[in-house]
Amino acid sequence: MAKVTRRGIAAVVTALLLLGIGAGVGVVVEDALGMRCSPADPMQSAPVVAPEIGEPVLPPAFTEVTAPDSPAIEVALDAVADATSAASGTDGDAALTVEITGSGADGDAYRLTGTSADLRLEAATEAGATRGLYDLARQIRAARSIDELLGAHEASALALRMTDLGAVAVTPDPAVYEAGTDYSHASRAFADVILPEAPYVDERALEAAYDDFEEFLRHSLANGFTAVAFPGFVEYVTFDDAPGGPVYAEDDDHRDKAIALREAFAPMWERADELGVKVFLRTDMLALTIPLHQHLEAEFGSLDTEDPEFWQTYTAGLDELYAAEPVLDGVLIRIGEAGDVYDVAGWDVYSALAVTTVDGVRAMLEAFTGQAEASDREVIFRTWSVGVGAVGDMHTNVESYQAVLGGIDSPALIVSTKYTLGDYYTWLPLNDTLEQGTQRRIVEFQSRREFENYGAFPNDLGAEYQWALQRLLAANPLIEGAWVWTQDGGPWRAGPMTLYLKAGFWQLYELNTQVAAALSVDPAADPAQVTADWAREWFSDDPATVAAIVDAMGSSREAIAQGLYLEQFADQRVFALGLEPPPMMWIFEWDILTGDSAVLDAMYMVVRDNGGIDAAIAGGERAIDAAERMQQLVAATDAATWHTPQIREALLGAIAYEVDTLQMLGDYRTMILQQARWHDTRSAEAYAAWEAAKASFEASAAEHLERYEGDLAHPAFNLTAAQQGVDRAERDLTMSWMARFLLIPTLAWIVIGVLAARTRLVRRPGAVAAAASIVASTRPWRARAATYGMLRTDRWLLLGVPAALLVATRAVQTSFLSWTHLAVVLGAWLVFAVVLRLILRRHSPWPVIAAVGGVIVLRCAVTLVALAFTGPGGYWFAFWTQPTVRTVYIAIAFALFLWAFIAAAWALATQLGARRAIGAVVASVGAGLLVPAVIIGAIGLEPALSLWNDELGLLPWGLARILGLTTYLEIPAETPWVAAGVGALLVAIGALLALPGRRTASTP
Question: Transmembrane region positions (predicted)?
Fold first, then answer.
């Protein structure tokens, strides 16, 4: 009796210990998820006041021009001539005199005097003279009076006004856009120019690329830009003088290719220089080739970016490059993103995310700025970064910014930062890291907003840009420039085929390029006037038509802000998994309507607690109203007043596309919110509302796909993940009823097992098996006695009931949609059982079957209770949104999982002895881990996780397609093999422990 009591006490203590461990796991999960939110402070902007739109003013014909002889002045005069010839006519003749005085104010200040018939432009510098000419050209393009320009014009507020490379040397190939699933961030610029073999350059393609570059330069200068970021660095360097070098052997074609590419692009860089445009080479760090990678590892043992000497290889490369091409002005560095999504297949130039520590960043910048100071160049360092720690969030965290960059005060260093506190999303706060620091700063803007359908919707950002710039300049006098992305950012071929200056309706997002440039020159400029000038340039001279377009664009932000975002979620700063997810999320990177439970359930909770579900649904309706208002305004204009019928059709087509998309998104938001509301409240009204919204979404989604699938200008959204979410949601109610029905025999089995030994139930069929199952699982030391002498029927019930229940529970838990999940879970249990049976050999397996089977029944009962409310959707809703419920569930479930193996060993101990019993279970557990791990490792962790996630819909479907689950969650690719190694070790240890000694227990 005392022995039984001790065993009972030991069992209770063990159970409590396991519950404690399970609760600890729950706390760890809670900490890992780290879900929290707090109010954000979204950027504001003054209401747009439409300017007075007057009649178009014809320019004079400049019949007499006197100006200095220089390429920059010549191209600026061409802009004036082009604008004049593009006007609907001229009004009289005029003389234009341009004089560079060489004295007085520096920068690009100028003075325009005289009359519209006799103009005189004076400036101290060539930059001032060309700015004045481009201002004159813009005035003519906007059909405004030249007299408005008369007077003195102060130097631009931001002298450095940089662009990306637009779509220069990018081929508009419809075939690569049709699928819409290429999420590569590589522009593949110059792909037609660069050859893999000697002579390495296709001269005909190079000539076409040069023409592209010339057109882009002229257009950018006319818009007011003064610098360009040109891709590449290591591909132009031989590294002959690298420490420990040369990097490339004499017969290595990398060297010849570098020289060939350098010579090929040099005329472009020289042309930019003679037109007054700075050229910065844009590169990720680390930028590598295979031989360079090998050289660095041979020299330093690894890619040790914290070693100052490591960077001497790169600075030697810059010395070489600047000596060969003195017109280059510096280098622009990003460390925060790298890898396959940015690399080009077949090119031996790739990037590695290797500068991840504060010491690494500081060592890099000290080396690069030292080289820049010595060579009279500049280094632009982007704070854009991802990951954990100070380097990971220096873009959005003032303390991290200071930790990384504090004290690095080189006059050659310029720090570049996006104006949003994060990526280019609406609702984000102003990036307050731009208000601090002792470094020179530039502000980054994006014209073709990648997350807002790649600029395919009207999206006038002028008021927001002005609000941001004015506050930043007031807070930080060290801001001296802006970098405007005319085309770049995000995947190039997953959205509409719009390529700046060459394909698609790029004129729509040209507005943001022009307004960013105008505000960089004069932050007090009227954004609405810039919009009116843009409308006059590209659409119509007619005052009524221009006014309608300006009015319509005034509604564009509400359509975007309410239609692509849920305000009640977007105006909060949400944190999860140690990161700060963006304010959109339900449209996940970039056109994928997500259907996963983690995002949608978390969004629901934030929305519910911050304004309410009904308000969020109403936001979608407001967006549709704004888009339809735009549509009505533009459609009501006189078609005869437009420059061309095609440009009118393009704008109306873009707005119609937006209206259709927002209607579909409005139906989807209603559906997902009502679905989560049902899981939250379990009310019949919420379920009925979900069913109605689902029907509306399915109808609007079908119409959207039918209308826009295959449309290169207006591509349909990717609804695969959303449809998968609908498929799962449709099964939730059925699965909840199945869980309830399964609970009946499950609870009956448990109750019969508890009562059978003490009542007449023991005489009923199966009662002995149920009793043995409960006894063995709760008091495993009695498992052998409980199963002794059982009839064949009871034995098969003892095995069959838990096995069938396990299969059925897992099938219901996955809505019969994840055979991968079933295969892994059931396969692991099967391997465990087979190995255990092989070890037992002539010993009876029934005691351990009873013990493990009983625990499985109890474990299934816990899961079925969780599923019985609103099915698997409700199960995951509680997991993601209810911390207390999640922790309690994990504590119980995890404790039962561990108890299954403890009970197995305890039950075997009466036959094998404690040592051999423990060994048998350890070996079996190891085998159950080893076999699935090897299979997953052979398949690949990323494909395996992606398939599993696709079936269960826990994390965004697009995550696997774009970033990769393992990359995003920072799961090492070798994890399955590590698990397999652990499994093999357990097998070996268990086998040793299970070896029989001199004495063995007898069989029953």
Answer: 737-757, 796-813, 819-840, 847-869, 889-909, 921-941, 977-995
How confident is the model over 326-366, as pLDDT tens digits? 999 999 999 987 655 555 556 788 888 889 899 999 999 99
248 burial (CB, 10 Å; 0-12 / 13-18 / 19+) is buried
Task: Take residue 347 and report the two structure tokens written for it.
Answer: 């090119």
What CA–CA distances, in Å, run from 720 to 341, 592, 659, 660, 725?
Answer: 21, 8, 21, 18, 9
8 A C-beta contact, residue 869 and residue 859: no
Tokens of 606: 């934030």
Mean pLDDT to the nearest integer, 84-94? 93
Q: CB neighbours (10 Å) of residue 178?
A: 15
Q: How does DSSP assign 455-468, residue by residue?
A: GTS----HHHHHHH
Per-residue pLDDT tens for 217-270?
Answer: 999 999 999 999 999 999 999 999 999 889 999 889 999 999 999 999 999 999
Question: Quick one: CA dihedral 484, 488, 490, 493, positive or negative?
Answer: positive
Residues 6+ away with beta carbon under 8 Å from 199: 260
Which residues, in sequence order, are CB contacts of 291 under 8 Å at separation 6+? 247, 248, 249, 252, 254
Torsional class of 491: left (φ above 0), alpha (ψ -120 to 50), beta (otherwise): beta
Distance CA 95, CA 116 (A): 9
Strands (E), 4-159: 36-39, 61-66, 93-100, 110-115, 118-123, 151-153
| CA contacts within 13 A on the Cβ side of 799 | 13
What is the distance of C-alpha 98 from the center of its chain? 49
CB within 8 A of 331, min separation 6: which ones?
Answer: 233, 280, 281, 282, 283, 318, 368, 372, 377, 379, 380
Length of the chain: 1004
> Per residue in 911-951, pLDDT tens?
888 999 999 999 999 999 999 999 999 999 989 999 998 99
Gap between the Cα atoms of 320 and 198, Å rounded: 22
Q: Which residues pair with 503 in a beta bridge?
A: 499
pLDDT higher than threshold 90 for residue 28:
no
**Tokens read off for 711:** 């449309």
DSSP-derived pairing of the beta strands 287-288 and 350-351: antiparallel
Q: How many CB atoms lie within 10 A of CB 661?
A: 26
pLDDT tens per residue across span 818-853: 989 999 999 999 999 999 999 888 888 999 999 999
Q: Are 987 and 934 in contact (CB under 8 A)?
A: no
Cβ atoms of 675 and 873 closer than 8 Å:
yes
* 400 alpha carbon, distance to own chain's centre: 21
Residue 312 to residue 378: CA distance in whole angstroms: 17
β-pairing, 110-115 with 151-153? Answer: antiparallel
The count of C-alpha atoms lying within 13 angstroms of the C-alpha of 327, restricted to the half-sphere facing its C-beta, is 20
Q: Quick: pLDDT tens for 718-763.
A: 999 999 999 999 999 999 999 999 999 999 999 988 887 666 665 6
> Which residue from 412, 372, 385, 410 is spatially nearest to 285, judged by alpha carbons?
385
Q: Model's pTM, two decimal places?
A: 0.93
* Count of other CB atoms within 10 angstroms of residue 96: 21
Distance CA 310, CA 599 (A): 42
The secondary structure of residue 184, as a DSSP letter, is -
* Spatial contact of 472 and 420, defined as CB atoms under 8 Å apart: no
Angle at Cα 603 formed by Cα 384 and Cα 181, nearest 5°? 60
Rounded Cα distance between 542 and 532, Å, is: 11
Check: CB of residue 729 under 8 Å from CB of residue 866: no
Q: Give the model confidence (pLDDT) of 863-901 as tens digits.
A: 999 999 999 999 999 999 999 999 999 999 999 999 999
Split at pLDDT 50, 70, 90, the class of 403 is very high
User: Is there a contact between 938 and 1001 (Cβ–Cβ < 8 Å)?
Assistant: no
Distance CA 423, CA 507 (A): 23
Q: Which residue has the tokens 């396959």?
A: 340
Among 455, 534, 514, CA closest to 487: 455
Q: What are phi and psi of 704, to 5 degrees?
A: -60, -45
